[in-house]
């Protein structure tokens, strides 16, 4: 039975050096040859994953944790964050010296010329500090924003803004998403396009933004390097991403043989 394989990127496909291990690539190629469909499920933006999509010949992806979904390189679902909400979050954040970054499918921009927290977290994705365009959200659809604060400062955002979700992905950064937006909702949207059933899906991930995906997928695999909560929810825990963990999971599930 053909499976839809939903692959997180950072910490799952890419190792701690943001490289694609050779064993992982070979496992993906073998799984496709066995009739399984590969799809990316990531918190990243489409413009951030172009090279990886090309290298792996993948044309189906869930990005922005479910806010922008493409099947065969055609967008099948887009959900932007309300601009009035972004204006209020920006004002709230500025009072606390917390900068924002706004993203659409093509680019990301910052609310401030430079901030060390933006630099640290965006560099972890191997991208430079974005250029400043404080009013970007007024004239562009924004599918995801980032607010830069530490974990102990996060709760005030949850309390103040009930119509969006804040999901931490870095020591100093949280994703901002429309309420209920998640990779899990993205899977529901995607299977309508691919023709798979929910029970035919297998999710592979490591982070907190993978939790709902783990719960909804037919089967779920967490990386050994993953967050403890993610590992608790998974059906199977594989090895560390730096030690061929994804390839081991494909072997365990019989996807690559």
Question: Notable features of this structure?
Answer:
single chain, 257 residues, alpha/beta, Rossmann fold, Hypothetical Protein, Haloacid Dehalogenase-like Hydrolase, Chain: A, domain 2, 2 domains, five-stranded antiparallel beta sheet, 10 helices, magnesium ion binding, HAD-like_sf, Cof, HAD_sf
General description of the model:
By secondary structure, the chain is α/β, with parallel strands linked by helices. The chain contains 10 helices and 13 strands. It has 2 domains: 4-78 and 181-252, Rossmann fold; 83-178, Hypothetical Protein, Haloacid Dehalogenase-like Hydrolase, Chain: A, domain 2. The protein has helices spanning 22-33, 50-56, 83-95, 116-123, 136-139, 155-160, 183-194, 211-216, 228-233, 245-252; strands at 4-7, 37-41, 61-63, 68-71, 74-78, 100-103, 108-110, 144-147, 164-170, 173-178, 201-205, 219-222, 236-237. α1 (22-33) packs parallel to α10 (245-252). The protein is globular, with a radius of gyration of 18 Å. The mean pLDDT is 96.
Q: What's the N-to-C terminus distance?
A: 14 Å
Q: How many extended strands?
A: 13
- Could you give me the name of the CATH homologous superfamily of the largest domain? HAD superfamily/HAD-like
Largest sheet: 8 strands, mixed
What's the pLDDT, averaged over the residues? Answer: 96
Number of self-contained structural domains: 2
CATH architecture of the largest domain: 3-Layer(aba) Sandwich
Query: Helix and strand succession?
Result: EHEHEEEHEEHHEHEEHEHEHEH
Shape, principal axes of CA atoms = globular
Query: Within the CATH hierarchy, at the fold level, what is the topology of the largest domain?
Result: Rossmann fold
Supply Rg.
18 Å
| Helix percent band | 25-40%
With strands numbered from the N-terminus, the spatial order across the biggest sheet is 5-4-3-2-1-11-12-13
Kindly name the structural category.
Answer: alpha/beta
DSSP strand content: 15-25%
